[in-house]
Write a structure and sequence with these properties.
Elements (H helix, E strand, L loop, with lengths): L9 H9 L8 E3 L14 E5 L1 H12 L5 E3 L1 H9 L10 E5 L14 E3 L9 H9 L1 H13 L8
Parallel strand pairs: 3-5
Antiparallel strand pairs: 1-2, 2-4
Helix pairs in contact: 4-5
Amino acid sequence: MPSAGRPFTPALVTELVAGGVLVAPVTLHTGVSSLEREEAPYPERYSVPPETARLVNAVHGWGTRVIAVGTTVVRALETVAEPDGAVSPGEGWTNLVVTPARGLRAIDGLLTGWHDAASSHLDLLESAAGAELLERSYTAARARRYRFHEF
């Protein structure tokens, strides 16, 4: 299971949906994807079904936000996103590396665990949060002795 999704119990998902949060499925086959900086993440297998692509596009059309749960979800959605942010259904293997220069197209926010500060996902996190917020967050986490979620 992707680690960012661990807290999402059936009860929590039910509560979120009852409160008006829309939830869309993405099938992921994850592995060790957050390597040392300067090393690209490994390819990951994904499937974005037609219903999820339609919902992402509808949410953007309504002027609201798409929040991904986990960096693997980001990679999957960004892999099937057009430059204008429109999402198409798709499946396969993604080699996509999200960087601040590339930017995010399909998502507007991200819930994630704490990745090691030297990991390849820091570029992806910086794309979502910006360099200043990311640095402030890591400084606060270190000061509170948070542990990174991988290894």
